[in-house]
Amino acid sequence: MKKVVLAYSGGLDTSICIPLLKEHYGYDEAIAVIVDVGQPKEDLKEATERGEELSDLYKLIDAKAEFVQDYLFPLIKANGNYEGYVLGTAIARPLIAKKVVEIAKEEGADAVAHGCTGKGNDQLRFDAVFRTSGLEVIAPVREMSLTREEEKLYASEHGISFESEKRWSIDENVWGRSIEGSELEDPSFFPPEEIYKWTSSVANASKEAAIMEIGFECGVPVSLNGTEMDGISLTKKLNAVGGKHGVGRTDMIEDRVLGFKSREIYEHPAATILLEAHRDLEQLVLTRHELRFKDFVDRTWSELVYQGLVMDPLFEALNAFVDKTQERVNGTVHMKLEKGAARVIGRESQNALYSKDVSFDAKQEQSGAEGFSLYHGFQSSVFWKLR
């Protein structure tokens, strides 16, 4: 019996893939797998009902803890950011693909599949992980070049019913929420307030500023206002508090892997707060040379995640470097959330390289700097003499 395991979401694309995999690809059994990385409960419920109805076997995997521990914490340590995008969807896709492969091997499947089109980034993220498994990789929507109207017609012919199509395309997990589609495709279109679910507008944000302190150990957030919290709870709390203060909205033009430019809108309060706090703490405890080199490493790390290349050997090497630098990233960062902004207002660490005892306010022999000053800019002075 030929089996295929599908990365299932409950949407139109992946729902029509189930009968397509049987009718057009000749598989006897289609297994639908949905991976919970923090999607809304109502979305998971709807997807479960549809998946159980359409597939031969349906599996719902709770991967939220693994998502935070093995994907979001490394992202924070590497200051994950691609062109201003905090990689919410991008960082989740490799984990989803990994879980699909695990189920495929458990079930003795011959192939893995996804419902991505041939225009977006997700196809590449799934493919890059899938192809390391040795299993056949199938992408029905892409391979058959199906249009949205053709998908709807096929669904109707096979009794797959959907309520009227939603105006906006939403992708959500514990790290962020993306909104696209419809009029938002026009970069000049002003997004209506209705698209936002996690964040208040600056005009409607809380009037009272919020002061908080975030504790870090080895680059990982471990406490909020002195109370130790697990990663999921801390992230959810910061999403709630930050959202009330209008923190974490991004409206940007993004360069996709295939070369397309796209208009993207994101909500990510916790990500904004944690990344700002983490970068500031690094500035306190790492040397200038570490910071400069790590800035290059962080950008490369983020590009690999965006492209879906987390299985590349370079990604493993970058993580090893990042982990080494984070051994000293311990301390507390004090943040102020107010009217859309998340600002650092204080920081402290036992590993701080700053010391008030050697600051320029302290009494010291200033003439010692004269020798350094003599050769500082030496090549520039020679240039101007010869000019």
Automatic annotation (TrEMBL):
Binding site for L-aspartate: T117, N121, D122
Compartments where located: Cytoplasm
Pathway listed: Amino-acid biosynthesis; L-arginine biosynthesis; L-arginine from L-ornithine and carbamoyl phosphate: step 2/3
Subunit structure: Homotetramer.
Keyword vocabulary terms for this entry: Amino-acid biosynthesis, Arginine biosynthesis, ATP-binding, Cytoplasm, Ligase, Nucleotide-binding
Positions contributing to ATP binding: A7, Y8, S9, G10, G11, L12, D13, T14, S15, G115
Main location: cytoplasm
EC numbers, comma separated: 6.3.4.5
A single GO BP: urea cycle
Reaction(s) catalysed by this chain's protein: L-citrulline + L-aspartate + ATP = 2-(N(omega)-L-arginino)succinate + AMP + diphosphate + H(+)
One CC-aspect GO term: cytoplasm
Gene designation: argG
Name of this chain's protein: Argininosuccinate synthase
Residues that bind L-citrulline: Y85, N121, R125, S169, S178, E254, Y266
HAMAP family linked: Arg_succ_synth_type1 (MF_00005)
Any one GO MF annotation of this record: argininosuccinate synthase activity
Similarity remark: Belongs to the argininosuccinate synthase family. Type 1 subfamily.
Residues covered by the Arginosuccinate synthase C-terminal domain: 168-382
